Amino acid sequence: MPVAKMTVMRADSAAGLVFIDDGLEQPATVNGYPAMNYQDFVALSADKSVLIAIANSQVRERIAAKLAADAIALWSVQADSTVIMDDVSIAAGAAFSPFVTIGANVRIGKCFHANLYSYAEHDCVIGDYVTFAPRVSCNGNIHIHDHAYIGAGAVIKQGTPDTPLVIGEGAVIGMGAVVTKSVPAGAVMIGNPARPMVR
Fold this sequence. Notes:
Helix content is 14%, strand content 27%. It has helices at 2-10, 38-43, 57-69, and strands at 19-20, 28-30, 33-36, 49-50, 73-74, 77-78, 83-84, 89-90, 95-96, 101-102, 107-108, 113-114, 119-120, 125-126, 131-132, 137-138, 142-144, 149-150, 155-156, 165-167, 172-173, 178-179, 188-190, 195-196.
């Protein structure tokens, strides 16, 4: 919520901020902000948009579809300390925590979450519903497909313009993993160098 507040203040807006929690039967407060269930939020007469602040990417996608059906826009938030370089394209619904850096010529899909001290370097392509935990190091020329989760402190080796390193759809990179080669869709990778987790 503090990052949302920074975003509103930068826009010099009088917009109000609320939490939406479907577990609530009656309005309440969370950390001093009003909280309400989704139906009460939809019933508000004001223009509204939503940041989906939920880690599970599949749940984010389901909520985004529900918002679209109700003609409610996705909202992006960005901490004051976030640095975004030249020629960056970011789809709606992104959340950039403090001290995140996005390098030049990066393309980011919808509902991307970048947590504290993470970065994506130049010429990366990041799909929809991707999550970076804190301190992710995503070096240049990396393609990360939809629903991938990159764990805290993971390092992804730089690709090249003609052969980008690819993290497949739905892949999970464990915390502290060092990824030195492309990862197939759905794989769970751990260790240094990263290798498939044996289940």
